[in-house]
Amino acid sequence: MNVLIVESNPDLGGLWKRHLERQGAVVTLVPSQEAAIHALYGDDYDIIVLDLVLESGSALAVADFASYRRPDARVIFVTNTSFFSDGSIFAHSPNACAFVQSGTLPEDLAAMVEHYASSR
């Protein structure tokens, strides 16, 4: 399972990365839209864990590029805001498979990643 995490907070991203690696995933952690685009050019990913509010760039631009460059990759959006809390993210991003809060337990996020990667 190859996972791309796009998260501006290195502590949070690192926490998710460690949990996924313990489950045997190969994980790339990047902090921005630009770094995510470069990663998507270079590697194939089963799942992208994408913070909806990035410090640098746009999460929707990353998801849009991923749908073009890596159409089989599914996106789990995470956020600590109420943006798209009505579920409309699924209308804006056809590769979205889940939408969770940033405070979701890392083991729960890892279980979702494993589930959606295996259903790919």
Overall mean pLDDT: 88
Based on secondary structure, the structural category is: alpha/beta
Total domain units: 1
Biggest sheet record: 5 strands, parallel
Walk me through this protein's architecture.
This protein has a five-stranded parallel sheet with strand order 2-1-3-4-5, sandwiched between helices. The chain contains five helices and five strands. The chain has helices at residues 10-22, 33-42, 59-69, 89-92, 106-118, and strands at 2-6, 26-30, 47-51, 74-79, 96-101. Strand 3 (47-51), helix 3 (59-69) and strand 4 form a beta-alpha-beta unit. It has one domain: Rossmann fold (3-Layer(aba) Sandwich). The longest helix has 13 residues, at 10-22. The model has no long low-confidence stretch (mean pLDDT 88). With 120 residues, it is an alpha/beta fold.
Summarize the structure.
This protein is of the alpha/beta class and 120 residues long. It contains five helices and five strands, in the order βαβαβαβαβα.
How do the helices and strands line up, and which of them pair or pack?
Layout: E1 2-6, H1 10-22, E2 26-30, H2 33-42, E3 47-51, H3 59-69, E4 74-79, H4 89-92, E5 96-101, H5 106-118
Parallel strand pairs: 1-2, 1-3, 3-4, 4-5
Helix pairs in contact: 1-5, 2-3
